[in-house]
## 1
Amino acid sequence: MREKVPGPTSKAGSIPTKMGSWSTVKPVLKGRCTFCLFCWIFCPEGAISQDEANKVVLFNYEECKGCGICAHECPTKAIKMAEPEPRGGE
Amino acid sequence: MKLRNVSKEELYRCSYGCAGCASVLAVRLTLKVLGRNSVFVVPANCISTVSCYYPQAPFFVPMTVMAFAATGAALCGISAGFKRRGREDIHVVGFSGDGGTADIGIQSLSGAIDSGYKFIYICYDNEAYMNTGIQRSGLTPYGATTSTTPSPCFENRPKKDMMRIVAAHDIPYAATACTSYPLDYMQKVEKASKVNGPTYIHVLAPCPTGWGFPPERTIEIGRMAVESGMWQLMEFEGGEFRITHTPRRRRPVAEYFEAQARFRHLRLEEIEAIQREIDASR
């Protein structure tokens, strides 16, 4: 789950540890996205990115902790929290 | 400022913060405004705790962990160094918690503001010492339970008014904000970054773990705090206070209290007394 990312200001870079394994539920886009970007600005993890071409938001499940702020704040209730598929034993 | 124009670059990623943490959101929003050209000083608080597990490093900008009482001193030192080297374009940001600002770091903050160096001091206020196990701080509001002020003998002192304290230093710019109003907060950070002198921003960051509410309600609780009058969004500039956001209708403070476990023990007459106090200060 660890990848080294070259940092913008330091040569050594940074090693973000993906926290997706914390989530018990994950957000999915079920309804029509109006591209208001409320979910994007309110996501504490920055796990939501913008798809400018298709005018929808994308979720990064590797970084999403499943807090559910995006689904709660979505004005059109287009985002729903769904149970993730069971993970395989490690 | 519009949401479409906000920087898409994420300079704070993959922290160990709890799900729904508003202080992590506050760092993210700050870095969206200031960008790569900034240096962070973080004393012992939630942010340094969730960002400094070896080998993880969520900050994509230089960041130093400082002793609890020395945030202001470190800010002055770094700012003086940049001034000597002619790099005053770099934003020096202190990111301290409420205990590190109002209790332990207050003399250092006071000295730093007095020195007049250019820096931004951001106090994210989650109203207790959250990362060590929810102990009361000077910024815990009246009526809240914490692990050191448990339910029958709850917190009986009012919240310290940090804005009046920093305003008494004749600071060039100070503001209060809330993570539930991100554009308002980001505008204030932008304004502070353009001031050539010390600036102070006090941002309310609801804490799902310490306040006792489900993580998806973080933004809603912050909004309730502003709408009920428990928290005001204001600016201090040129010797005058200015309210930047007035809620369209006031919510009863009982709604805000009912949503959180830390106020669950309050009796009706106590809530009414707090409501009367808020109405009187309007």
## 2
Amino acid sequence: MSVPLSIAMAAGRAAAAASRAFRRGEGATVSGRVILALRPDALAQLSRGRRIILVSGTNGKTSTAELLRELLETVAQVGGNRTGANLDTGMVAALAKEPQHKLVVLEVDEMYLPRALDELKPERMLLLNLSRDQLHRTSEVRMVAAGWRAAIDRHPEIDIVIDYEDPFLAYVTRNHPRTTRVGFGKRLHLDAASCPECGSLLDWSGTRYRCAKCELGLLPQSFAAIGASAIERNLELACIVARHYGVAADSVQPRDRVVTVISGQATLQVRLVKNPASWIEALSALPDGPVILVVNARGVDGLDTSWLWDVDYSTLRSHEVLVTGERRLDAAYRIHVDGVRHRVCENLADATSFLTGSVTVLASYTAFIAITANSGHKVLKDSKVTRR
Amino acid sequence: MNESKLRIVAVHQELLGTYGDIGNAAILVHRARARGVSAEIVLARSDAPLPSSGDIYLFGGGEDSAQIASVTSLRVYGGELSLTTALSNGAALLAICAGLQILGEYFPGSGGERVEGLNLLPLHTISGKRRLVGELGTRSDRFSVSLTGFENHRGCTVLDEDAEALGEVFLGIGNGDEARHVDGIIFGKTIGTYMHGPALARNPELADHLLVSVLGVLAPYEDLPATALATERRRVANALASR
């Protein structure tokens, strides 16, 4: 016999409080783990009677979910996994923490999405993009997409919003009757030379990809929107979702995950870059001034650094560049081949000791977490990026 | 070699470029130019015939469906003949992971079915029991240093009995053939390996081996960032192997 849900939730709260007391982080994962150990069905139970909106994709989950919550909070109280803990443990913790909130926005890890659909029974889902990421962990993007497709086919009742310019999202929602396909204008995709559905070469010569064999990409788009950068597209998509809840969404700024950290004489604008798509995005809009690259290759960063070679670094040639992180030599050699002069530093403190003023830091996942949370640097605030 | 420029043909990058494979082309150009040899990358797309005038051909890694699209294109556009012509004219070839499998006699499709390869290399590939992911390290008499890389594959490649492997595995799995704990193949001027993605970044000696095999002689060149990376990865591989 299992313990009552209320007892499991109390145990989770106690564990989270203990974790916070010992400064081991927010406690979200710990609390979720305890609740799930006592009640393996907690995810389904805690979502019952609530209106759940899921946000998933390779890039932009946390910032877009946050944006969506902010939009929705203008009309209702909204719960969610604000810390970005996006596996079952993090979602359970978020649902247990604020049981009074009937409307909940949850970001979900790509690999976990199929189970989340089955257990949470969301009413709406926003899919941002799907591209190569941490190949050692998530396996190849086509395998992830196949899992999504099967899960989405099982849930025709959900309302889904997708960026239709991503062929993988077109593929996963192809048979789904309640999908809003938002067109942004043609954008090439690193992993979609061949059709996600049938494997033949996609034709990218027209206004959108299309597959001559299985006709992927031929369904009409629901409507067209404008979004030159990923940040702008995610804002647009969040607004489309929010409109369903009565939000007139024009006041919110696009959001980027940039954290300001003061280090000695330098003001670091720290940005998370975790896979080729996010590197390309970050390098395309670099502010003037020095740039520090921090590359690690621990589990969540991807153990394999080969993706470094998927990115063109030539925009760095006009910047002062410093390289650090556990895999600094991989990154240093990579940009050397692209003709970028740079200095290799033992650690971030060494790198910043040369610098004053505003410095852009592009950091892989574990480096980003370390710099913004545990480094002893003072974290000012999440900054907002204004619309260009 | 082509009289004017070293032509490095990156084959079907859009299909066989899943793991930063274009890096190998960039590294070969970089190391050739450092020796005063002009070099260019030729992107051979899968919707057109493969040029037969290349000096070094690069086949990279890719997913199952992309791998099959690539081999289908090679068949449709006579890529087999282009490659045979190029190789008999003295071209070199680097084949990684899916690319290596394509050049063998056959390999498994996504459902495990047998797909015919180009049969240019004395090997074949069957489905392995599990996905092999992690650091890979090998040694051989051909190179004065060990080779290191990262592998991520499921296929299990079996060399023909008299075929020479690229190296003996001291860390990781390599080809995955239980009878021979080796990685890759060395066959004429062709090198195959499961050290995927930009294997040449971590192994400048392998890059120079390919360049020497088409240029004959090569001026000495030490590229410090390359040496630093290769040395560090070898140190890490040795440490992992002795754990």
## 3
Amino acid sequence: MKTLIANGKKWIHFDGKIYSITSQKKKGSGTEAETTDLVAPFSCKVTKLFAKPGQSLKKGDPVVTVESMKMEYSYESPKDGEVAKVLVQIGQILQAGDEFIQWK
Amino acid sequence: MAKLSKVLILNRGEIACRLIQACQELGLKTVALYSDQDKNARHTELADESIALEGTSALETYLNLSKIIPLAKKIGCDAVHPGYGFLSERAEAAEIFAKEKIKWIGPSANSIRMLGDKLEAKKLLDKYKIPTAPWAEVALNKKEELTKSAKAIGYPILVKAASGGGGKGMRLIQSEDDLLDSVAAVAREAKASFGDGTLLLEKFIDKPRHIEIQIFGDEKGNVTHFGDRECSMQRRHQKVIEEAPAPRLSEKTKQKMADAAVSLGKGIGYASAGTVEFLVDENENFYFLEVNSRLQVEHSVTESVWGIDLVKSQILVAEGKLLKEIFPDLEHKSVRGHAIQARIYAENPEMSYAPSPGLLSYVEFPYGVGVRVDTGIKTGSEIGTNFDAMIAKITASDSDRDSATQKLLWALRNTIVFGCITNINFLQDIISTKEFSESKVDVKFLERNFNKWKNEIPEGALKILEKTNSASTQIQQSNSSAFASPWDSIL
């Protein structure tokens, strides 16, 4: 069995399997908690942008398309609401946790 | 063709390492290329020489012919090996190198053009009487025509990049509602990955198995096959586990598939390694899927059960050797035992296989009888998002399928990657299923059974992690850079 802390995450190799928890989180299954915020879940590049400032989005409306590890991922609005600001632009490289838009 | 002396490796990661090893075993010098982030990658260390391709994306680096060709001439290499992905199925690349009198270790530009382009390949099939599912070419700008041909084929439909492969640039369309969006998305993916946006629509065969035939030819028109591989265990149309020989398939069907593949290869004078992929339905009807005119990721399982080295054989063919010289005992060669390969991806199976980049703070691979590890990573490697998420392949070989499965499980249980989330636990759970052990698996198996898979942390592991807290915090503080020495914290 081996354990290690790196980059704010604790890792363990336990009974042949690998688990990790973030330092803040007591319990978890190795992944960040799901959120209804529109954020990049991993580092990626913005390839398409649908949302505009002042636009009223319906739940399910396309917001942004990103590319990572050669695959495309599309993100939809998780709720009805008005866009205050678009925080990304096409071609921009995002880090995990970067927000796509700001709600009004 | 004379003996080669210096090979430029047109790839990165595990396959670059694999190619370098084969070249060096044959006494050939190797030159590696690297992007900005790959400067310290394992393939650059293994090669005799390595050269920077400035930039970060594939287009700027490993796909950038205008940088690579002058380099190849400058360093005086007499051959290039493209591996898989990147330039491997770009006919114009093979052609340009041929013009420069630099040997392309792989099929000819002509073969790549005919087969690599799914559209052209399909046209060849009638000639060689190879069964195929209904299909149509996509005209992006003619929406009515597109809708019409989709209707004629009948939903569900697959849209895929004509020059694609490995599951990249491919999507399933369930109904007309998704047609235009999906086609546009695949066209963009195809352009980004392969530099070519040509697409085709194809009838989707429900719950098929993916079984493929390894073919191999010399430059004098002799073509043979090295049996079949079962590659049905897929997520997002990408293979996860592959094995040879294909289980639960009659010898009669295997022979028919192999004969079809060889006749296609012979028909076009295919040289070097290639793979003819088929979809096989429950009644063992098989339909042509595509030809990969290159070395395949899963070539390792074929090598294990046939006792051959496909990469070294490719080099020998490029030097002008004949099949009978490379494999003098070809007629007596047959499959021995069973081999299964698992692909380790830096991805999160709990979150729709989302990419999971990161700095690998600790990496350990298994070694032992019957276990083969192909990888380009090590402790300290950084997994970025510019390239494919596959970081290693583990192949287990044994006398029979059950033993090989147990061996693979053992190997995966002794594989450690800390620093980014991988599918290692997921792979263990897959091969532990009843369906896998009975090989009752089709290409939709993972989608049906593993979409809600969770990596639940056991209480015991959690307790230990909580206990190690303070000691580890010190290590974290003592090294403000992301990379901590693992040895300090290993219990």
## 4
Amino acid sequence: MLYGYAGHTLRIDLSSGIIEKEPLKQEWVDEFIGGRGFTAKILYDETPPGADPLGPENRFIIAMGPLSGLFVPAAGKTHFAAKSPATGGYGDSNMGGHFGVTMKYAGYDVTILTGQAKDPSYIFIDNDTVEIRPAGHLWGKGSTAVEEILKNDLGQEFQILTIGEAGERMVNFACISHDFGRQAGRTGIGAVLGSKNIKAIAVRGTKDIPVFDPKGLLKKGRQTYAACREKPGFKGWTPEGTAGITNWCNDVGALPTRNFTTSHCDYADKINGKAILDELKITDKGCFSCPIPCGKYGVAKTALGNKYVEGPEYETLALVGSNCELSDIHAVAHVNWVCDELGLDTCSAGAVVSFALECYEKGLISRDEMGMDVKWGDLDSIVYILEKIAKREGIGDVLADGVQKAAEKIGGDSAKFAIHVKGLEWTGYESRNAPGMMLGYMTADVGAHHSRCWVLGSDVANAVGGNQDANVHDLISQGADFEVIPKADHKNVVPLVLKSQHLRPAFDILGTCRLQYMEIGLETHYYEELYYHATGKKLDFDKDLLTLSEKIWHLNRMFNKREIPDFGRKYDYPPPRFYEESIPSGPNKGHLVEFTVIEEMLDAYYAARGWDSNGIPTKETLEKFNLAVE
Amino acid sequence: MTLSFNHETCSGCRACELVCSLQNLKIINPSKAMLRVTARFPDPGIYEVDICNQCGACAEACPTGAIHLVKGTWRIDMKKCDGCLACVPACPENVMKVDDDGMPYKCINCRQCVEVCPRDALSFN
């Protein structure tokens, strides 16, 4: 008996319509445990080299971990992976909510889609019954409408994921939406589903998940929930959720503003967590089994109408808010709603719109090309550009490929302020004086995404003193009041970056959210004990799990090497804005990251990883991690 | 003392369903829990939890007198229950459950849901 797992892989070939259910491979469980371990292994092994990310050969993988769906705090993350249309390399994204756990209750730890459906379709899963059904009636519809239609047709207990118009038109930053406000946003995962002609997946699962020691899991689960309650962040962090960090980011000069021109704005109080509570919120909206719900569900009221929306979360506040100079919380929430309905990742969408606004301001996109006179901080302008992107109309078709490819077409000096790494847009932490964050963004397998590494607190401590290991609630509680922040030392950031790059995926492997650990400081030993009661196997978080994280890091690097013809060091550089332009305002005024520092950090990072000077894992490193890949 | 629910604080996490099934049935399966979290989205954007408030409608419907009151909690005497399931549609909250053998089971006020709920949305009044 495979305890802690549902025990099956579901394979659906959309071209032939063949649906197969097979036992979950013991090899995957033994070597890669679950979640993002599974996605890395399967994507490398099963995607034909050179596959078109938007073609039938690409794999679309859904994976859960051994703790997913169990009596464990925040065990509701669903992992998706595919070769990314945004980067051409390894792509994944995850979301909270209730979808993945329901897949597991239906009996499936892993689901792999291959091929391409001939016509718009959705996948229906009701425990053992799996069907590919027509979705002509859903095509063109927004995420809310699709969820409502399918729940009304099938039953409210069905969990739905869907793509929007942007996914249908294969926008490179199309997301997957679920549960009226949760998204798997990054790496164009929604475009891959769209390329397969799959509009939605609906699942009902009512089976047991076998666990090794139900009594022990009950006891340890209760203790873990109680331990969460005891953390100061339980009451301190939860009310505002991720949005609670907005002012701190602004105060430490890390809030992306005006397409990353600067890192500080004078209106953070208008677009922060308190503004959400005061102006928008109806209810806290948590993911499955989560004791600290970061989701805030409410109503955005603007001249464009009243809209129910979950969020905005911090990343949206930063990238749609200050990065587009949108200073009204209702307007930011409205754009959040537009992105959700169209199926656009709010991180990349905010970054792409701000890039477009700068191009327009500098005359690189003309009034005729844009189709209207667009302005910074103008709700109508932002919504207009987003709709153009989702419909791939005019300039929207250029922007729909993301800032890297758009800059190649727009020309001029636009590549200098196309803020991305590897083709994936940068998220909500301006890092010119945060060398650890900078290096984390540069070296992340998926491109510029903070999900792989977040050491901003350490970087700030590096510059001004303080605790290198403070959790987010502690950072927010301490506050930040700096007229001027000295230059952070980049000399010793590599060990911190490596630690974060291994810690964060560890939770993705287990199938839980990392925020209990990251935001309120729940200790990792709880996960070791919960894992034992769930699976009957011992797990040393540091030795076993972090080593697996490291292995995955090498494997995904090799996937990128295999799939991107000239892959290597040059793919790890940040955009020129960060090493050519110093920050013009705020507490980090005058700082930039010198190119020599970038090179020095990469040299140290590659050496610590066991990669050569071009950033490719050496033969010895691959052998050490038992990776038979080339 | 009966279980009561406050939707103002519920965030829909379903920890109550998890602990209910694990405590009482020794399994991980929220769909078999003796209470049910329902999400009302997009409008009005609230959660509801269907709970047994020990109203006794099940006992009134029971033709064999198998459901009886023990210290404020309606319990099913499985020796008297013949599995007719008249209690199931009688439950106004739809939380009289049926097991894999076709026999009914219900909330016994074990209070684990109240203890675990991280939002204090469930209580005994």
